[in-house]
Amino acid sequence: MDKFATIESLKALCCAKEFGLLYLHILNRELSLKARQGNSRMRKHSDAEVACLAREVYTEWKTFIEKHLDRPSIEVQSDPKTESFRKNAQKLLSEALELEMDHLLVENIERETFHLCSRLINGPYRRTVRALVFTLKHRAEIRAQVKNGSLPVGTFVQTYKK
Questions:
Q1: pLDDT higher for 151 or 12?
Q2: How far apart are CA 143 and CA 140, in angstroms?
Q3: To 5 degrees, how large is the angle CA 116–CA 118–CA 120?
């Protein structure tokens, strides 16, 4: 232990190792924003090595997020029963929005709902779809906002998630 003069230098080494792991595994955008990976406190750390690593991780994270910001998530084919439920939800949403079933907006609303419900067709998914359909059918101002894009799909679905 004589290699580490103080507890502070041991902490700095641990922080540097943690940043090295983060450097290898860049978190997804939501997790990294919640964890505040780019926290300026670490970039202004008293140990120059820790601060340097923190700056490297932050710039790497920022460029990664900027490159992948507009990429759509990968959709995987589900079992026939799940696909049937999702198609039915799209049909109900398209009728409520007064759009074609294969319209991009309908697909985006259903996909966002599916992802928010942990990619499972369960009670919360069904209740959320019902709430969205009911809102779109009976509240013309919300329907207009969703159709013209002034109310983002993510916000809309999150607001009525059950």
A1: 151
A2: 5
A3: 115
